Amino acid sequence: TAETLSDKYKLSSEGTLEISNIQTEDSGRYTCVAQNIEGADTRVATIRVNGTLLDGTQVLKIYVKQAESHSILVSWKVNSNVMTSNLKWSSATMKIDNPHITYTARVPVDVHEYNLTHLQPSTDYEVCLTVSNIHQQTQKSCVNVTTKNAAFALDITDQETSTALAAVMGSMFAVISLASVSVYVAKRFKRKNYHHSLKKYMQKTSSIPLNELYPPLINLWEGDSEKDKEGSAETKPT
């Protein structure tokens, strides 16, 4: 009735009732009464509200995770509520300033990432995602993104390659340096052991008597000396 009309309920001159920001508590039986000079007639309509579908900024939000020269990786989040839990499909629509390239992709609602490929470098794109539920209610979110320059992507690739090559060369240099140090330490240790062994040997040999080292030669020399003494003794009386 006119007494109950407000910003939430609007009744047009044709008799249409419009309910704004409908909630679950708005569920119920609504009776329409039409009157004219010939009498009155009534109709009853039952409205059941399962839940509230939030506005687009709350239900759906699309983000750009990564932009390359020929591809764009996007992701999105859908808030969980009664209506969005019944979402069956999400459609991702990409629009660009260049009218020669456009396409629409349909993906399952449980997928929250999509890679848009075969794009042009240094081009502005508008990526829009539309979600719908079992009641054919839709929500939409869009984002603008520009693909990278092809030369910039090439420079990044070359830089990454140079960095990887430098890392490999650095690793090889470290391995060679470590091997050289190991060889030097091993040689130094071996030389030290050699000098130590030689010193011990020299100390040992210096304490050995000559008669033990060369006994035949010493005995022979002593025998010759005794013979010379005997010969000189025999010739002395004459």
Care to describe what's here?
- The protein is built from four helices and eleven strands.
- It has helices at residues 56-59, 150-206, 210-213, 215-235, and strands at residues 9-11, 17-19, 28-36, 39-47, 60-67, 72-78, 89-96, 103-108, 113-116, 124-132, 138-146.
- The strands form four sheets. A four-stranded antiparallel beta sheet has the order 8-7-10-11.
- A hairpin with a 5-residue loop joins strand 10 and strand 11.
- The model has no long low-confidence stretch (mean pLDDT 71).
- Residues 1-50 form the Ig-like domain.
- This is Leucine-rich repeat neuronal 1.
- The chain crosses the membrane at residues 164-186.
Keywords for this entry:
four-stranded antiparallel sheet; 238 residues; membrane; 32% strand; three-stranded antiparallel sheet; elongated; 4 helices; Immunoglobulin-like; FN3_dom; 36% helix; alpha+beta
Beta fraction? 25-35%
Largest sheet: spatial strand order: 8-7-10-11
Low-confidence spans: pLDDT under 50, at least 5 residues? none
Assembly of the depicted chains: single chain
Count all strands and give the number.
Answer: 11
Give Rg in angstroms. 51 Å
Task: Report the span from N to C terminus.
Answer: 179 Å
CATH topology of one domain: Immunoglobulin-like
Average pLDDT, to the nearest integer? 71
Supply the number of helical segments.
4
CATH architecture of one domain: Sandwich
Helix content: 25-40%
Q: Give the biggest beta sheet.
A: 4 strands, antiparallel
The level-1 CATH class of one domain: Mainly Beta
Shape: elongated
CATH homologous superfamily of one domain, by name? Answer: Immunoglobulins
Protein name: Leucine-rich repeat neuronal 1
InterPro entries: FN3_dom (IPR003961), FN3_sf (IPR036116), Ig-like_dom (IPR007110), Ig-like_dom_sf (IPR036179), Ig-like_fold (IPR013783), Ig_I-set (IPR013098)
Keywords: Immunoglobulin domain, Membrane, Transmembrane, Transmembrane helix
